[in-house]
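Duplicate of #3305? Posting structure anyway:
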């Protein structure tokens, strides 16, 4: 039976400290959660602005369901493109400074659809080696020739572009790298794309809402604008709800509508979610204190852990990775924090390179200084 092989593979993963298991949380998303009836202080969530359980958003979702129903009923291309979807796309395009935007059900589907629609067999994709798995899968499914460059290595990418003879070239990169928390050098990447007649697709899943003026994202943070930029961001992290969007020139969005398989052949997300994201977008833009609180907490954490025997990777974002190295050691440190009522996930290969297992500390504007101090004190005690 093939099941014997599956059991063996899972056993090997367990032996290497790579077995993943789910835990059931029996409370809403937040910085203080309940799992199996036990209270925990959580540093696991990507809810960077603390909006996922905001009462204004839950009220907006209830209103949206009452008016628009529980589901869209069909794909966008059949009869599932409802007025809230259309209004949200216009609002998102304006917010990030692009001509048009297109909603997707998830960021994974957005990346799959965009890359697959824009490049094919005779084209070339250039990708940072630490890109998110969705970008990696997207470039493979596109059937384009793939060139991967060392993390944020502008010189190597320049050489690869210099030697490319492909007519259509696409550079893809995370804006904020999800496991390291550092930023891509977007200005330098865009300059290379301008020089070599390439597109630049930016996955800003972890920057949207956090970076830039009013949380407009990484392009605003770096002051970038160009028709070559194709911008993707998710709506289930800092925006607090669900979904994703791609914003770009009108001809790019029209191409995605016609050729992005993960858009064409997927039932549209519930219109009530679009209503809720519109409400959250207004909060995200206006409540600057949320981003200011994040910056204070980031500085507090980095100062408090500066002399720890495990080092924080360089990051100015809410993603603060504590490098442990060994897989089993990272898992054990995570479990020892859990025993103290603190949740911080251990991240291991293949999500991160071999030998760089870490704790991924995620901060939220909903955390307090006391929450961060509790984590700092626990890590110092465990280090000794």
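Output from current build:
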């Amino acid at each position: 039976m093939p099941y014997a092989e599956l059991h063996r593979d899972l056993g090997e993963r367990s032996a290497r400290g790579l077995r993943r298991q789910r835990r059931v949380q029996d409370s809403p998303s937040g910085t203080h959660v309940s799992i199996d009836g036990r209270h925990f202080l959580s540093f696991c969530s990507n809810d960077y602005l603390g909006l996922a359980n905001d009462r204004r958003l839950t009220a907006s979702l209830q209103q949206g369901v009452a008016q628009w129903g529980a589901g869209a009923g069909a794909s966008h291309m059949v009869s599932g493109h409802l007025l809230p979807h259309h209004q949200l796309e216009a609002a998102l395009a304006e917010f990030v400074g692009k001509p048009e935007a297109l909603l997707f059900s998830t960021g994974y589907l957005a990346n799959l659809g965009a890359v697959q629609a824009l490049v094919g067999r005779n084209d070339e994709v250039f990708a940072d080696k630490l890109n998110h798995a969705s970008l990696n899968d997207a470039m493979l499914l596109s059937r384009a020739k793939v060139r991967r460059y060392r993390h944020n290595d502008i010189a190597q990418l320049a050489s690869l572009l210099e030697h490319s003879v492909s007519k259509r070239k696409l550079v893809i990169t995370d804006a904020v790298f999800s496991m390291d928390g550092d930023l891509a050098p977007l200005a330098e990447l865009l300059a290379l794309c301008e020089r070599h007649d390439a597109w630049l697709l930016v996955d800003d899943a972890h920057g949207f809402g956090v970076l830039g003026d009013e949380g407009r994202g990484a392009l605003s943070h770096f002051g970038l604008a160009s028709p070559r930029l194709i911008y993707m961001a998710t709506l289930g992290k800092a925006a607090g709800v669900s979904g994703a969007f791609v914003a770009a020139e009108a001809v790019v969005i029209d191409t995605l509508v016609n050729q992005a398989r993960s858009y064409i052949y997927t039932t549209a997300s519930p219109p009530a979610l679009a209503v809720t994201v519109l409400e959250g977008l207004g909060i995200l833009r206006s409540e600057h204190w949320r981003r200011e609180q994040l910056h204070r907490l980031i500085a507090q954490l980095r100062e408090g852990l500066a002399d720890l025997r495990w080092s924080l990777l360089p990051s100015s974002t809410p993603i603060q990775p504590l490098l442990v190295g060994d897989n089993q050691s990272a898992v054990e440190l995570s479990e020892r924090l859990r025993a103290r009522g603190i949740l911080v996930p251990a991240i291991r290969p293949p999500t991160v390179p071999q030998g760089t297992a870490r704790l991924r500390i995620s901060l939220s504007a909903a955390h307090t200084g006391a929450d961060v101090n509790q984590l700092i004190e626990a890590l110092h005690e465990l280090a000794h």
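Confirmed duplicate; merging threads. The radius of gyration is 21 Å. The longest strand covers residues 319-325.
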